[in-house]
Amino acid sequence: MSLLGLKRKSDLVAAIAAAPGAPEILMELEAQDTAERDSGLVLGRDADVDYERVEELLDQARKRFQERQFEAALTAAQEASRIAERTTEQLRRASWSYAVLAAQGLLEPCNPEDPETATARALLDRARDVFFQGQLLDDAFLQDLVRAAEVAHAREADRVRDLLALTRDSIREAANLGASIALAEDAWKRGGDSLDRDRLAAARESFVEAAQRVEDARLRRIREVEESIGFVSDHIGLARNVGADMREAEELHQAAQTAIAAGEHGHAGDLLKRAERLAMKGQQRQIERAMQLRQAQVEKAQAIIGSCEPVLKEAESYDLSATEVRVLLRQARDVLTKGDYLAGLTFARNAEEAAQRLEAQVDDERRRRGIQRPAAGTCGVCRSTRVTFQDDGWGRCEDCGTTFRWRGPLGVWERLKAILVP
Prior knowledge:
The chain is mainly alpha-helical and 422 residues long.
C-alpha cells in the first residue's frame, strides 16, 4: 500500500480501505470499546466533501473544450467524474453518521427496560456495526431507526412529565402539612428548566432529587408534630399551675392527638399551634395579673407605712415609747426593698396595729397638753376650705381628696413650753 502523493484526508481513507490488510485492521477495530466506535461515526460525520475540486475540474474541462484541447478536456472531465462519485459516497456516509449519532442522542436518556427503547437500541447497534464496517443500508432502515428513536424519546419525555406532575403534587402536600419545601422547590424548578430544554436525563435527576427532599421534609414535619404533643402538654401544665383556664387548650390538644392517630398531621399541627398559643396567652395573663397584684400589695404596704410614720413622729415628740412601731416599720421597709411584698405587707399591717394602739396614748397626751382639733382650715393643694379633721390627727379635703396630717410632732417651742409649764 502506497500513500505517496496523497494529501487529502478522503484520498488517504480510500487508499487505506482498499489496502490488502484492511480486513484484518477492521477486525481489530471491531473489538474496540464503544468510545472508539463512536469516533468512527464522528469521522464519517466530519468527512471532507471536496466540492471545490469538482467545480475546478469541470471549469478546466469546459475551457479546454472551448480551446479545442479535447484530450485535456477529457482528462479533466474523467477526474471530475471520479471525484464526484467518491463525494456522493462521502455525503451518504456523512448523512448516516448524523442520523446514527442523533438517534443515539435521543436514546441516551431513555429507560433501557422500556420495550420501545430496547427495539430502538437494537436498530441503533445494527446501524453502528454496519456503518463501522464501511457498508450502508437502504434509506428505509435509516427511517426505521429514526422513527424508533423518536418514539422511545417521546415515551421517555412523557414519563419525565408525569414525574414533574407527581413531584409537584408531593410538594403541595408537604406544604399543606407545614413542611419546609424551599430546597425541593429549587430542585423542581431546575428540573422544569431542563425539561424545557429537552434535557431529559438532567430533568429526571432534578425531579428525583426534589422528590427525595420533599419526602425528607415531610417525614421531618411529621416527627416535629408528634414530638410537639409533649411540648404543648408541658405549656398547658405550666399555665394551669399559675391559675389559667386551660379547658379550651386541653380540648385542642386532645383533638390533635386524635388527628395524629388518623394520620392527619397537617390538621394536628394547626391544632397544636392553637393550643400552644392559648397556653402562652393564659400564662401571660396570669403573669400580668400576678404583677398587678404584687404592685397593688406593694403600694398598699407603702401606704400603711406612710400613714404610720406621722403617728410615730408625733408619739416620739411626746416622749412616748414607740419602739415596737419603729421596729416593725423598719422591717416592713427592708422586706419590701428585697422584693418580698407579702412579708412586707404583713410587717406593715403589724406596724399599723401597733400604731393604732399608740394613737390612744397620743390622744391622751394631746388632751393633757390642750391640743384641740381645728374647726376650719384650707387645703394646701387646691386651696379649698371644705376640709375635715379627724381625732387621729388626719385631715381630708372634700374637693380634691387630698389627705394630710393636721397634727405633727412638737416643735422646739412646744417642747420648751411643755417643760416649763407643769
